[in-house]
Structures are given as C-alpha cells and as structure tokens.
Amino acid sequence: MTSRPKSVLSRELLPASISVYTMVALAAFESLAVAAALPDIAAELGRVDLLPWVITGYLLLSGVGAVVAGPLVDSVGVKLMFRSAVVIFVAGSTAAAFATTMPQMIGARVVQGAGAGFLLAVGLSAVNLLYPPHLIGRAFAANSTVWGVMGVAGPGIAGLILSIASWPWIFLVNLPLGIIALAAGWKILPGPVDPEAESTIDGLGIAMVLTFNLALLLAVDGLGPWSLVWIAVATATGFLYLRRARRSQAPVLKIRHLVEAPFGILALSIAMLIGGGISVHSFFTLYIRGARGAGTSLTAWSVMFFVIGWTVGANLSSRMLDRQSDSSVIMRGFVVTIASMIGVAAVSAVGWPLPVLFAAMLATGAGVGLATNAGLTLLRSLAASEEIGRATAAHQFFRNLGFSLGAALGGAIILLVVARTVGDVEVVRDLLAGGDIAGDPEVAEAIGQGFTATAVAGTVLASLGLIPFAALRSHLAPARAAADQMRSSG
User: Domain holding 382: CATH number?
Assistant: First the structure.
C-alpha cells in the first residue's frame, strides 16, 4: 500500500519540492533584488525617464510568458518547458548584466520577464500535477514562503552584492542559481498529461495578448488624454481576441478559462485584489523616504512588511483550508485586505507613527496572501488535469495583470498629484534613482498626498473585486450544497 505523504518535504515528494521551489527562488530573487540596484543602474546607464520600464517591462512579459507556457505545458509537458524557461531566464539575466544603455537593459529585462513567466507557470502547473490533493494548499503556501524568505533576505543579499561588487552581479548571480534549478528538475518533472495533444503556438493570439497588456499599462502609466486612446486600443484588442478565440481550435487563452464562470470570474476577482494591494506596496518605499524622511536602511527594509504579511497569510490559509471552504477563506482575505488598506490610507493622511503604518501594510499583505493561496487551491479543484496548464496560465495572466496595472496605477497617481502640487515630477524620478529631497517640505507633502490618493484608489480597486467574487460564489453554491447534502446523508 502506497504511503500517504504528510508534507511537501516527505521523502517521496522531496525531489519535486527541491525543483519547484528552486524555480520560485530563481524568479523571486531577481524580481525583488533588482529594485536595490536601480539607483546604480540609472547612474551608469542614464535615461532615468525610462527607469520604471526596467520593472514594468519585466512584469509585462512575465504575464505574457505565463500565457504562452500554459498550452505548451499541456502539450509538451512540464519537464521540457522547465528546461526552456531556465535557459531563457538565464539568457536574459546575462544580457542585462552586460547592458551598456537603458534601452538594452529594458530589452534584456523583457527577455528575462518572459523566462520568469515560463518559470512561474511551470512551477504552478507542477504543484497541481505532482502533489496529492490534501497537500495542494500546503504546496502553494510553501511557494509563498519562498517568496517571503526572498523578500526578507533578497534586499540584504542584494545590498551585500552591491557593497562588494558592481550592479551587473545582481544579474550574474542567476547563472549558478539556474544551474542548480536545472540539476534539481532535469529528470523529476512530469511530461505531458496527454501525449496526443498538439503543441501548436497561437502566434497571433500571443501578439494580441501582448498588445492588450501594453495598451493597459500605457493607459495608466501617465494618466491624461492619451489614456483614453490606449484604453480604446486595449478594449478593441480584447474584443477582437475574444471573437477570434471563440472560433479558434487552439487559442493561447481559451474562453472557458478567460471569461466564463468559474475560471474567469475567479481570476478577475483575485487580480483586482492583487492590483489594489500592489498599487500601495510598489511605491511604499518612495513614501517612506520622500514623505517621512526615513533613512536608506529603514526605507530598504520597509518593503518586507507587505511581503512577510503575504507569506503569513498564505500559510494561515493552508491551515484554514483544512476546516473551511476555499471560497470562505478568499472572502476573509478580501475583508482583511480592504480593512487594512483603509487603515493605510488613514494613517498616511493623518501622519500617524510609522509602526502603525507598518502594521497596516503587514495586515494588507496577510489579506492578499489568504485570498490568493485559497484561490489557487480552488482553481485546482475546478480544473481537470489535462487542462491544468491552460487554466493555470490564464489565472497567472490575470494575477500578473493585477501586479502590472497595480504598480503602474500607483506610480501614475503619485506622479499626477506631485505634478499638480509642485509642477515638477522629476523630483519623484530623482528619488527613484537614489536622489534626495531633504529640506523641501512642499515636495514631501505632495508625495504624501499622492501616496494617500494611491491607497484610496487601491482600496476601491480591491473592493470592486468583490463583484466578480460574489458571482463566483453564486455559481458554486449549487455544487457546494449538493456536496454538503451528500456528506450529511453519508
């Protein structure tokens, strides 16, 4: 009789866990550590006006990469996609290390982001395919724990690297990490669930997804008259994609996973929650430094509160799922996140002490962790094994869209408020590039007002996520009622 593994680190699951979480660590370190190198990168490469795209370009292609990986995971399997993902990611990292201009850096980050999207999609699909149902929640929580550990250790590691070497080593460190990842997962990861499935690539669909994402980012990157144009482009592209996907035999994103219940509305609600939280988190350090006058050390470590909160929330979610339904845990995550973000807005508006603000950010991260971890377990219960790649990729597409749009929205609001108050947004760009605004209370106040406005907007966005979530609960209610009746009669 086959033994029932008790944890993700049980003997029979240990090789799989090493490979999966090495992938997560690889992507997590780079996405978190590069922020510490931005001032040095800007100082050497110039073009500070393009600096936000070092992050945004990575996030944009990460979302598209996850979409592309989905159907390929279903057709060629996790193993081959894993190998490809690591090679692409390491190639992008190497190119970034040797970039000599800001456009070259952004191009390298785009390649790196595509590889990261592959890694994330492959990692999530591997969890769904390798772990037994009773450990799915624990496995996703372990995923978040790796992100959390890197969130705490990453800035310190990045600071150590920058203190003894130049910024290119932030990227070159991925070479040994990539070798470790390849060695750990070379043989252990599974092949295709359905060997007969065709491995087609929907090139036009991928281009449309990329256009849709880029148009949305440009719409919120600089709020103004052009935003309406880019929103129109995104709307038209989305409409054309949905029309085409209904007729295509193998679209990169299926209608079933994209807009229909339960997959589409689950992903949309989670994306809106993430977007709200990330809009505040992405520019929290700017507020701490620019509005509160914190030193370099405190500013650097202030990012950990949201990340630690997310990790705690994800692990708490995995325990709650033993006795509560996943939809109930998601609802609790929404409540905690929205209440905490209201607290963030209030604390920043009134100017209460930083420990109170840090506690509110910790709680915000915990709420997001609760909801997102339970959302992944719910997705696994809804998707069949032969469609897990596409279903996971569509869900990850929405999650990445939440990350990208949340970060872009937060930056756009802060820049808009500063521009209207001070008349010059370059002070914000200077801060992002490591500058100083000491002794300028007008700029500090403008940044504080911008952050408060961002917190309010983020709260509204997260709250709107309750609309599709309510539709999801209504959709799932009959099946849940039938299951409860069967348990009671049994």
Answer: 1.20.1250.20
